[in-house]
Design brief:
Layout lengths: L9 H10 L4 H13 L16 H7 L6 E7 L5 E6 L5 E9 L2 E6 L2 E3 L8 H4 L2 E4 L2 H5 L11 E4 L9 H12 L11 E5 L3 H10 L4 E5 L5 H7 L8 H15 L3 E7 L7 H11 L5 E7 L13 H13 L4 E3 L13 H10 L1
Parallel strand pairs: 4-7, 7-8, 8-9, 9-10, 10-11, 11-12
Antiparallel strand pairs: 1-2, 2-3, 3-4, 5-6
Length: about 350
């Protein structure tokens, strides 16, 4: 099977050119050129000899996921449904804010973890993405990403090898050139993988899906809690902060009468009060057509925020983006599949 261009670092591409007796300077032209104009592919890279381009197309294909549907929100958010070579589809979300362009990328087709409030989790798991499919979501658009969140379809740490390589490729200066601190990994709390990746990339950001401080409740909505309990996940988050000095974010999707009660607020105060290493993101829930849950009201979410602030907790309410489109993870893919039936 040919090597894919978007899974290679610059050094790996240069090594391939060297082994095939191609001048080294042409590897730099190739790497820089394909990231500048990825949709043109090798045939459009006129800085390379004409007879070399079909060889590269055959040996190092530079295909990227092919957009098949784009939804645009009034707030500027764009959700892109893209087709892979095997006809599976994945989602990415482009979120413009002031001087940023944050891209939420997928790491799997579907997800194994079956979180009850997540459309992707309810749809089952099909396969992991390879590195080129992860990186390929970030190129080919008119805008260039400034920040990356591995927070789309799938559990990133369940695809650790491809994720790690994607981080290396995204960091390449002549490619996307994003620093570690501009990347965030979202996880339900796969503790061994968290430790492995934080050792390799100590400057990367972490967002841990917590959503409850009660083990019974969290197990109902997130079955992974049977394997890694709340205390284990919180301890692992504390270890991340001590090892890297990077504040860890906890994600808390606000579910009416599930995790927005007074007892939930008290447990959050216990977790966060005076703790410099933790930050809580309160997120309004984007309900799906098949959802069993409703979002907490904004009044309740703001009340929880105010109470936490008075207790010296680091907390913020995440602005909802793309409410007028299928912006929640997995929604657009499911809608596309249903329309084809």
């Amino acid at each position: 099977m040919p090597t894919k261009f978007f899974e290679l670092t610059q050094a790996e591409l240069a090594d391939w050119f060297k082994k095939n007796n191609i001048p080294a300077f042409q590897a730099e032209h190739a790497f820089r050129g394909l990231y500048a104009k990825p949709v043109l592919g090798w045939q459009g890279l006129t800085t390379l000899p004409k007879n070399l381009r079909p060889v590269l197309e055959a040996e190092i294909p530079a295909r990227i996921p092919r957009p098949v549907q784009v939804q645009s929100s009034q707030d500027g958010t764009q959700k892109i449904l893209s087709a892979l070579d095997d006809a599976q589809t994945i989602e990415s979300v482009w979120i413009p804010t002031r001087n940023r362009m944050t891209v939420c990328v997928s790491t799997q087709v579907g997800c194994k973890l079956n979180c009850k409030f997540c459309q992707t989790g309810q749809g089952g798991f099909f396969r992991n993405l390879d590195t080129a499919e992860i990186v390929g979501q970030l190129v080919g658009q008119s805008a260039k990403p400034t920040h990356i969140v591995f927070m789309g379809m799938g559990e990133p740490l369940d695809n650790l090898e491809a994720l790690s390589k994607a981080i290396d490729v995204i960091h390449e200066p002549l490619g996307l050139g994003l620093g570690w601190r501009r990347m965030t990994i979202s996880t339900v709390g796969l503790i061994p993988q968290m430790q492995t990746l934080s050792d390799r990339y100590p400057a990367i950001n972490w967002a841990i899906s917590l959503h409850s401080m009660d083990d019974t409740t969290r197990t109902k909505i997130m079955p992974i809690n049977k394997k890694y309990s709340i205390n284990q996940v919180v301890d692992a988050a504390g270890a991340l902060f001590r090892r890297t000095s990077r504040r860890v974010s906890f994600e808390w999707v606000c579910l009416k009468d599930v995790n927005d009660r007074d007892e939930d607020l008290r447990s959050l105060v216990t977790l966060l009060a005076g703790e410099p290493g933790f930050h809580l993101n309160l997120l309004p829930y984007h309900p799906t057509t098949s959802s069993l849950f409703k979002s907490s009201s904004m009044e309740r979410i703001r009340f929880i925020e105010r109470q936490l602030v008075t207790q010296r907790c680091h907390v913020s309410v995440r602005e909802s983006r793309g409410l007028d489109i299928d912006s929640a993870c997995g929604q657009l893919r499911v809608r596309e599949i249903q329309s084809a039936l």
